[in-house]
């Protein structure tokens, strides 16, 4: 690249003026000096270039003004460029004027004396004037540039790249200096007073002081300098054979017709041509005479252009004239081949036709042509739609299957038209067996077509241009060799798929593929190309069976793995229970109002139970992605929780649903909403306060009476009502008044109905009701109070779990499920958990968590003793609970899980050893149970035996007991001896002998298994358990009974210690209470601690000395803890669990995350869900064969298949 820069030089900037000095003793400040002038820039020099060749490969450039010659550019190098720069210089800026000096301060006057008056202060000096700014210099003129060539070398004009000939900028005048400030006036002399006494007469005298001097005046600002004159622009011209041109030649694509394929579809491998295009000369001179201009296309991702197909413009194009591309001289090109099959999509790409026009000898392209492109869609002429399929079926059901083949082109396709076309339905695993039952049972034409030589070739990988080496064509369960499909025709292939293997485990996914094969473009009648594959699967599921003893309903889908489902089942079985299942993919929906075979709605069957809803994505019948929340909708879940008392555990990505609508009603401002089931109770309370006691015996007061009484008491906040208020004549209505009213109403309703959160909306719409002299009555708008979800109990827990496939319930999930059970069921679960220590720990933590919820809800509520007992229902129930019965040894019965072909026994739920997250290793429970306690007839110095081991007491005394609270384990013989050191020796030996016999038997049995090379035991059963299972029945019963006793005592010890520490945490809460409510909180706190103490001493028989000792030790540990830290572990232990397993999943619980809120109606988010609540549930509608008579309902099958056919949709372009 060559660059000729003959620009002028810039002028220099003027010198800034000096600032004036300050005046002294009231003198004037000195003036600032003027700034210097900027100098003028110089003009650019002219550039005169002559471009020529000498018959060689060199380009010769003569610069006539400087008499220079350059010959270092070679013809044909596309990187050759010449830049010409002849800009005028920029004028110098003027210097800034100097600032004026400050005036001198005046001298102070003399003070008065007995003999003279005070003198005035001196006036301050004036500030000096600022200096004037210097003038800016003039800009230089741009130069004259000419580039000369003859007709034979006019292609050399393409070398000129950038040309600049601008005049220089004018220099800016310098700013004037600022005038100096005036000096301060001198201070006047002070006055003098005295007195004289003669003959007892005192006379007072004074001499006045002087006045302060006047301040000086500010100096004048200097004048800014004048701007210089900008330089004039230069000129540029091409000279061709003595004639001057302002612009050279230039080309653009003026018009191009769309590229046409013979069948309307541009597909990979196809050859195409451009046969209608105009190339226009938009330049200022004709195109070169002696050199050709080549028209071609640039190769890219999808376009292949052969250089031999380049089109040359054979003559010069005059200014404004065109050159036409026609059928006689087309630009031919090809779409590149593509032999990969599109997986679960349609092959569709965009090919960019990138035009080029180049002057041959100089090898330079026209940028205006390069900038123009056209885009075309590349696809195959046929495609298959997404599969329409019932994604989950029971063994008796058949899944309707429908898929369509669409010929998008304008030509028929098929072997009858010399192009192969074939459809295959493939089973991916031949260990599984399925039947495809076509919609038409007798299709002799299809059999004939499939048996033809071309149909047989479709089963041989050798006949494919893109063979799949891992594919076994014996997997084909259905083939449709298509001999003809017309232009824009759609051919549907449909039927049903039925599973055949009766031993197939539940929740197995039978994976299949739908493949479309097309004749390879370059050999369309002999070679296949697999152009598209649709993957899909059918899940073997089981129908919904209601078990009255089940406390859980799992709503899962076709993507849920058997591993996850089994983990939920095992969780329920570990408590001796069961879980009901609802496959939303099989039933095509879920609705609490659905009435099934039991003739009761789900809302009745699952009242006071827990529904587990998985929100991962899965496919609908039409392959569209969805999730359970899109099918059920958040308001329906809210309705189930609020109206039907069905708690919910939502597990899956939070991004798949709007959590706001799970905890808020979807109401509008005009709805009239009451407080629900509490209405009559509130009425009776309000009526009592209103002294209408004679009406209390009414079971159902009339609506108007009830509304009036409640409205008077609550100022109408139980309903939607108009807020009336008086406003003085000098004030205007304001939204602040209704907002203040709304906040006070919300506070009052929270006190009167404390068990629930409330949502309040208000709409500010002021209307004058009655005008008065001093004040007027206004209706400021509507206020609505809605009872929301409970605050004293968890009814909804959501967990953000990104991946659910191939995962199991973890400890956080298991705790959340127990937490969502009612308090009464939790107490019942304590008895059912006695066969599994880890389960019992979670139940105890969930019980205490519920007690925390109730305590937090009512701790600041003013209430008498009777109200306190009525509000703290769980505490009262806990106090009355029969712990002796609940803590008896218990072993849940083994459950059986049905599979097709029989039953399979599940091993006991193998709950991994639970470790509390903040617990140090030395305080965790080991996997082996501790030694059982001493017999009941043993004495410990005449006292009850302690329920804690000695190591715990040592830890307590040494302050080593870390937070959160857990039990220590008796993990060695030394600790066992410490615990039983006062027990009679014979009893110790007896207990230890039994324990040692158990261990020795298990160890011997394990050794025998290893010697015999026996396989490892079943997953979920330890080696010791597997060995113990081989013992004689009598000995096994003895071992099992011993284990049950050990677990029972573990649970008892843990419960005692957990309650002691909980009582200490409650005691610590008093120190956090606010002064305004300390007495109220202390009353509730004392009530709860009394209940715990009563349970420990009277029911669990723990000595008060031990309670005090351990409680005080733990209380000291809490002194450094934050208020939230102290209580969080008891109210929400799952948070600590989540942190401990280093899981990024987040858990939200409604009664911890939701608060009563007031919204302006314009701020309350409204959403139209547009979802019909009457969801049609598919229950048994895909069973076509009578189980007894084995008769097939062909019409029903036909109708179902056609329904699926009608839902076929192709991928959107």
UniProtKB/TrEMBL annotation:
Residues 93-107, 121-139, 176-189 have a biased composition (Gly residues). InterPro entries: DUF7932. Residues 196-205 have a biased composition (Polar residues). Coiled coil: none annotated. Residues 93-139, 176-229 are annotated as: Disordered. It holds the Pfam family DUF7932. Residues 261-372 form the DUF7932 domain. This is DUF7932 domain-containing protein. It comes from Tetrahymena thermophila (strain SB210).
